[in-house]
């Protein structure tokens, strides 16, 4: 039982950088979900299509590691996008049990439409911040990424 004078979090917990990052992430994610929904797409679909676009031939297991999700989650997304004709699996040239992922023409078209939505969200954010603050935010976020990786 917690006494009234015991706090479950430290003072200033809601002022932490990590909490601000999470709030920003949730706000952006919510907007992405709202704006991508009319396209029949979720942010996870966009992320997967972008990843395969940037590195055609990725295997599901490698994609899961890069996206920091389970292989089962990637398999489910891949199956959904494959059923829509947006992704195809191809046999790996040297490893017969590995299948590479590739965008189809329909996948490239879906990605193009979704990327326009994401670019509009980006414009909204950067216009709200202005060019100097946008550049500063990108620099700071890169520094956060590096600091966390180095921890």
Characterization of this structure:
This protein is mainly alpha-helical and 151 residues long. The protein has a domain of 91 residues: Winged helix-like DNA-binding domain superfamily/Winged helix DNA-binding domain (Arc Repressor Mutant, subunit A). It has a two-stranded antiparallel ribbon with strand order 1-2. Strand 1 and strand 2 form a beta hairpin. Helix 1 crosses helix 5, helix 2 crosses helix 5 and helix 3 crosses helix 4. It starts with 16 loop residues before the first helix and ends with a helix. It comes from Streptomyces violarus. It holds the Pfam family MarR_2. One of its GO terms (molecular function) is DNA binding. This is DNA-binding MarR family transcriptional regulator.
What's the main sheet like?
2 strands, antiparallel
Which outline best applies?
Answer: globular
Per DSSP, the total helix count is 6
How would you state the average pLDDT, rounded? 92
Radius of gyration: 19 Å
By helix and strand content, what is the structural category?
mainly alpha
- In helices, the fraction of residues equals 55-70%
Q: What is the CATH T-level topology of the domain at 39-129?
A: Arc Repressor Mutant, subunit A
Portion of residues in beta strands equals 5-15%
In N-to-C order, the SSE pattern is HHHHEEHH
CATH class of the domain at 39-129 reads Mainly Alpha
Terminal Cα separation, in Å? Answer: 35 Å
Strand order of the largest sheet: 1-2
Count of β-strands: 2
Fourth CATH level, the homologous superfamily of the domain at 39-129: Winged helix-like DNA-binding domain superfamily/Winged helix DNA-binding domain
């Amino acid at each position: 039982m917690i006494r009234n004078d015991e706090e479950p979090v430290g003072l200033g917990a809601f002022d932490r950088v990590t909490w601000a990052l999470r709030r920003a992430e949730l706000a952006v994610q919510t907007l992405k979900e709202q704006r991508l929904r009319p396209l029949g797409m979720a942010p996870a679909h966009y992320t997967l299509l972008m990843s395969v676009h940037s590195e055609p031939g990725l295997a599901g297991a490698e994609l899961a590691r890069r996206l920091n999700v389970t292989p089962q989650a990637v398999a489910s997304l891949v199956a959904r996008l494959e059923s829509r004709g947006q992704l195809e699996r191809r046999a790996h040239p040297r490893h017969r049990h590995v299948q590479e992922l590739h965008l189809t023409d329909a996948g490239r078209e879906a990605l193009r439409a979704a990327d326009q939505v994401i670019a509009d969200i980006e414009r909204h954010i950067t216009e709200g911040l202005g060019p100097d603050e946008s550049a500063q935010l990108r620099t700071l976020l890169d520094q956060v990424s590096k600091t966390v990786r180095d921890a």
